[in-house]
Amino acid sequence: MMRRPVPVRLLVLLAGVAVLVLAAALSVAFGTRIVAWQDIVSAFTTSADGIAEAAVRQRVPRTVLAMLVGASLGVAGAVLQGLTRNPLADPMILGITPGASLAVVSGIAFFGLSTATGYIWVAIVGAALASAFVYTIGSLGRGGPTPLKLALSGAATTAAFTSLISAILLPRIDVMNVFRFWQVGGVGGASYSRIGQVLPFLVVGALLCLVCVRGLNTLALGDDLARGLGERVMVTRIVAFLGAVTLCGAATAVAGPIAFVGLVVPHVCRLLVGVDHRWLLASAGLLGAILLTVADVVGRIVARPSEIDVGIVTAIIGAPFFIYVVRRQKVRAL
């Protein structure tokens, strides 16, 4: 892939920031309830407490959560693709997000979990165990963990975990009522309290990923060459893996399982800024935030006065892109 000049990369990031600001403004302005522009202005410039102003103010934490979750999934997808050198790597496809979902549902149904912080810890553990399981299964046989074997083992694990979630929820109407919308994936229940609880986990996960950017660039040359260059391959893999799993687990705990963001975003970012992870992770965070925020806006507008959860919108976007990647890349390693 052609190396992008630094000015081009900076321009891409600046353009991404501008688009993200625009997407955030649209997210606050448009929703299932139509409000006038003067009501939007009044919501932030006065203490008016009308229905329209309240609706506008409620969209702010939703917008912030959509940006945080989208950025987290975008960065996690880029890290996972870099670690596995697999163009099909995605938290949902590799079974990481379903593992987090199964852990949360099991915790609530069998252990009485009821706090957001508890959900996050359990989701991170579930995501870690699921990813380790998928990697182990995909490593069996000749050739080790090839992209195709990882994708197939991830798909099988996702199907199994989804069935287990249904088996847990169906007899438990109380749990089903709580999580029937969460399972679809959405940010409709956002609040400043939830954001404050999940933010430390997202920050830690992002920092773990960022400290590994140089190591990820070296790993792209192959493990043997990376060791020859002095890279501590196992340490880099473990730290980057923990960062990606923390981001996936925490995002899933607060927004439910959202598919394909971690698949689509890194591929687009490589076209824009190249394969250097120092630029790739920054652009993946921006584009992931943009994608999920815009998808949430679209879901609110097209189904007025109801709404379509953002997880459905991203699936509609991501499924054709997944087919395109399979046909274009022919499931070869990055």
Automatic annotation (TrEMBL):
Any single biological process term in GO: siderophore-iron import into cell
Localization terms from the record: Cell membrane
GO cellular component labels: plasma membrane
Keywords: Cell membrane, Membrane, Transmembrane, Transmembrane helix, Transport
Xref: Pfam families: FecCD (PF01032)
First-listed, main subcellular location of the protein, grouped into a coarse class: membrane
Molecular function, one GO term: transmembrane transporter activity
Membrane-crossing residue ranges in chain numbering: 60-80, 92-113, 119-138, 150-170, 198-217, 238-265, 277-298, 310-327
Membrane topology value: Multi-pass membrane protein
Matches recorded under InterPro entries: ABC_BtuC-like (IPR037294), ABC_transptr_permease_BtuC (IPR000522)
CDD domains xref list: TM_ABC_iron-siderophores_like
Entry annotated with the keyword Nuclease: no
Source taxon at top rank: Bacteria
Homology family: Belongs to the binding-protein-dependent transport system permease family. FecCD subfamily.
Name this polypeptide is given: Iron ABC transporter permease
Natural source organism: Aeromicrobium piscarium
